[in-house]
Amino acid sequence: MVSSIRLLGEGFMKVEKMKMDMAREIEEMRMETEMKQNEMMMIEFAEADCGCFCAGFGKV
User: Which of 28, 47, 53, 59 is 20–30 Å from 13 (CA)?
Assistant: First the structure.
C-alpha cells in the first residue's frame, strides 16, 4: 500500500517537473521572440531616421 502511494507521488512529481520545464522553455522562447521583435523595430526606426536625414540633405 505504502509503495503504491509512493509510486503515485513520484509519478505526480515527475509530471509536475515536466510541466515546469515546459513552462520555462516557453517563457524563454517568448522572451527571445520579443527581443527579436524589438531589434527589428529599432532597425526599422534607424532606417527611417536615416532616410529622413538623407532626404533633408537632398533638399539643401
Answer: 28
